[in-house]
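Incident log, support desk, overnight shift.

02:14 A customer reports that sequence design results differ from what the structure should imply. Their input is reproduced verbatim below. On-call engineer (initials T.W.) acknowledged and began investigating.
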């Protein structure tokens, strides 16, 4: 493959002197960013609460791992139509609907949990419904950034969105663990439902301009055009294959962490996830500097090797302190891999195809995580956690070797996604 990326607009080079914090001086972006941080924290509290509740309802590693699988399973069903719809409809109204859907799912699950009516399969069902809302929401959510930040601040705005998610990843699990330890998972679910109202208020008050050139394609036509583009673009093949190899093999750590953390209680589980999030946040800060000395392929390869080592170690360690250190390193490796893949996904297509291309990338990433979570959970039921984590580590290394020909290296690629006003 040629050492270049197609479809990268020339406007990308213009953001070099813009402050990383400049978008927060824009009231519109700042309001949504603050609301998004609160929503992301609620999401992580929900994930901690659901995983921990399942460990209280059953001791089966398979059922525990299915919590993550249920959250990601909807990606197989709706992510591609959602990407097409994000290019076709009024995104403000579309997002109001998806946010209300998630409020209802989280709120009802919280009430049922407090009343003591939740069973393992009912928990998986509501987790699926929340995942469905999130998957339908994602392409449109990513697509509105160019509409709420000025052109000069688009690149740092995308970076700040990533930082918001990692801040929430660092503090959300710890808050969730503390809330669950003091009360129960039902309260965490209700707090997650309440967190969506900040975004809903923003969307309700947002005066979104009408599109001058609305997309008049039908859904099927839009999907067909997206598939045709993917079939003939070798760069897209590289990104999707690398993403699939990583996501399936890497999913064991987060899927089985609730079982590993069971001896330390809900607060311990939250702190371990917090260690993972802090590691991801630190890596997000260091990654641009690391990129100056390593190629994109070099960053990804090194991060996969580190993630494989930490995955294997997590299955054998008995010390909470050492496990926290390992999770911190795993978080650093995770963001190194996912950041590179995400940038490649955002720059692999022209702007008019970006939502559909991102939906295909999310299908492979989250779908691979869902398949992997269920598979590693089933394997852990038969051979135990330590052996399963070792197998996952070996799969990561073998996957890295198997996809060497699908290179991501590019002299033009930066560790910040390109964004262009449509």
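02:41 Re-run completed on a clean worker. Output:
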């Amino acid at each position: 493959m040629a050492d270049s990326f197609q479809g990268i607009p020339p406007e990308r080079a213009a953001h070099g002197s813009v402050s990383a914090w400049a978008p927060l001086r824009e009231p519109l972006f700042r309001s949504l960013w603050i609301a998004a941080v609160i929503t992301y924290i609620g999401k992580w509290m929900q994930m901690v609460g659901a995983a921990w509740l399942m460990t209280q309802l059953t001791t089966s590693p398979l059922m525990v791992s299915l919590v993550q699988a249920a959250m990601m399973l909807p990606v197989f069903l709706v992510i591609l139509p959602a990407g097409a719809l994000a290019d076709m409809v009024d995104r403000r109204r579309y997002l109001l609907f998806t946010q209300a859907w998630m409020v209802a799912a989280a709120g009802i699950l919280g009430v049922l949990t407090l009343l003591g009516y939740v069973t393992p399969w009912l928990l998986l069902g509501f987790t699926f419904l929340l995942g469905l809302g999130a998957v339908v929401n994602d392409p449109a959510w990513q697509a509105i950034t160019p509409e709420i930040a000025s052109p000069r601040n688009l690149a740092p705005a995308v970076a700040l969105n990533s930082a918001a998610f990692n801040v929430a990843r660092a503090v959300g699990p710890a808050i969730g663990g503390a809330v669950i330890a003091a009360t129960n998972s039902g309260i965490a679910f209700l707090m997650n439902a309440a967190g969506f109202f900040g975004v809903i208020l923003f969307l309700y008050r947002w005066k979104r301009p009408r599109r001058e050139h609305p997309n008049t394609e039908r859904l099927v036509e839009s999907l067909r055009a997206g598939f045709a583009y993917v079939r003939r673009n070798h760069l897209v093949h590289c990104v999707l294959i690398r993403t699939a190899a990583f996501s399936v093999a890497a999913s064991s750590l987060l899927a089985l962490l609730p079982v590993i953390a069971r001896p330390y209680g809900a607060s311990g589980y939250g702190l371990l996830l917090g260690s993972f999030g802090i590691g991801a946040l630190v890596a997000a800060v260091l990654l641009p500097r690391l990129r100056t000395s390593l190629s994109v392929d070099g960053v990804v390869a090194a991060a996969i090797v580190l993630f494989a080592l930490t995955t294997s170690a997590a299955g054998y360690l008995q010390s909470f302190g050492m496990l926290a250190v390992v999770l911190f390193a795993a978080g650093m490796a995770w963001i190194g891999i996912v950041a590179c893949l995400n940038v490649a996904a955002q720059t692999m297509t022209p702007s008019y195809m970006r939502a559909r291309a991102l939906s295909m990338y999310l299908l492979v990433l989250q779908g691979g995580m869902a398949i992997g979570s269920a598979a590693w959970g089933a394997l852990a039921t038969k051979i135990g956690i330590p052996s399963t984590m070792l197998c996952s580590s070996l799969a990561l290394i073998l996957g890295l070797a198997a996809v060497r020909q699908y290179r991501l290296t590019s002299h033009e690629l930066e560790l910040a996604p390109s964004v262009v006003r449509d």
